[in-house]
UniProtKB/TrEMBL annotation:
It comes from the Bacteria. PANTHER family: ABC TRANSPORTER ATP-BINDING PROTEIN, ABC TRANSPORTER ATP-BINDING PROTEIN NATA. One of its GO terms (molecular function) is ATP binding. Pfam families: ABC_tran, DrrA1-3_C. This is ABC-2 type transport system ATP-binding protein.
Length: 317
């Protein structure tokens, strides 16, 4: 079951195509990474998903029916990268106000505030003004204010900004817990190592277009370059290493990075070492990181646009 279905979404600003025919789905309970360089169209997509903007073309389905901002907005929690808190307002009053905006009763909101303030150990902040808090402390308050009404869809834009490692880990564990209990999460960040650690699926956009869409594990498999790292117990001589099954990319002491030749199988690498009586201490496949895939795909699209422009045809805008 999908919570969100994006179908051929388009949003134009004058001659700029902020979102240009993008489609993807977000399964219920998943942690979904929305990735792209600055100006790729991510913010416009998020604003359409939250009903702030209306698409020029295309459709957004929420729980299998057309998205209606008037009613569905109460099922969404949106934590923007920019602070959305009132600086002169006290932390407790702020949390209560934002919870009631989401349709919670005063009693229910106060119960939730107590639960989350206890859990995050911030009861001492209740009567402090937001402007008295550090950036990281404000981020914790904003996170709590975003999830208090138990949204079906939680949108987090750079949620770890300003957090120290301990509090970043606290928020990360809450994200995992929310996903396990059925909350669907859209996670937008420029930190690709966080994407690999947290996300089940991703979509990569650039210049308003979708470049990639799928499960993180499968995307890493799709972009692998048949590289392997192998450790040996003794230093082999050059003659022992020579084979048509693989080429040596790099050597670091008793460790080799090799590239499998076309037509050869993974076992051929191991069998070559065994036949040469070279003890193998470890053997692992090297998969590309999401950061490497991100750079490769965005760079390829940029280079293609430059080539098209240099041929006298209009580049994508």
């Amino acid at each position: 079951m999908n919570l969100i279905e994006i179908k051929h979404l388009r949003k134009y600003y004058a001659t700029h195509k902020a979102v240009d025919d993008i489609s993807f789905v977000i399964p219920k309970g998943s942690i979904f990474g929305l990735l792209g360089p600055n100006g790729a169209g991510k913010t416009t997509l998020l604003r359409m998903i939250t009903g702030i903007f209306y698409p020029d073309q295309g459709e957004i389905l929420f729980n299998g029916r057309p998205f209606d901002p008037r009613t569905d907005i109460h099922s969404i929690g949106y934590m923007p990268e920019e602070r959305g808190l009132y600086k002169k307002m006290k932390v407790g009053e702020q949390a209560l106000y934002l919870a009631q905006l989401k349709g919670m009763s005063e009693k229910n909101a106060k119960d939730k505030i107590k639960y989350w303030f206890d859990k995050f150990e911030i009861n001492s902040w209740y009567n402090k003004k937001v402007e008295e808090l550090s950036k990281g402390m404000q981020q914790k308050v904003q996170f709590i204010s975003t999830i208090m009404h138990s949204p079906e869809l939680l949108i987090l834009d750079e949620p770890f900004s300003g957090l120290d490692p301990i509090n970043a880990n606290l928020i990360k564990q809450e994200i995992f817990d929310l996903s396990r209990t059925g909350t669907t999460i859209i996670f937008s960040t420029h930190r690709m190592e966080q994407v690999e650690e947290i996300c089940d699926r991703i979509v990569l956009v650039n210049q308003g277009k979708k470049l990639l869409d799928g499960e993180v594990k499968q995307i890493k498999q799709d972009f692998k370059q048949h590289l392997f790292r192998i450790g040996v117990g003794v230093m082999p001589n050059f003659a022992q290493m020579a084979t048509y099954h693989f080429s040596i990319i790099k050597q670091e002491g008793l460790a080799y990075t090799v590239k499998l030749s076309e037509g050869s199988a993974t076992n051929d690498i191991l069998m070559h070492f065994i036949r040469q009586d070279i003890p193998v201490t470890y053997f692992q496949e090297i998969l590309p990181s999401i950061n490497e895939v991100f750079i490769q795909q965005v760079t390829s699209m940029t280079n293609a646009a430059v080539e098209t422009s240099s041929e006298g045809q209009p580049a994508y805008s």
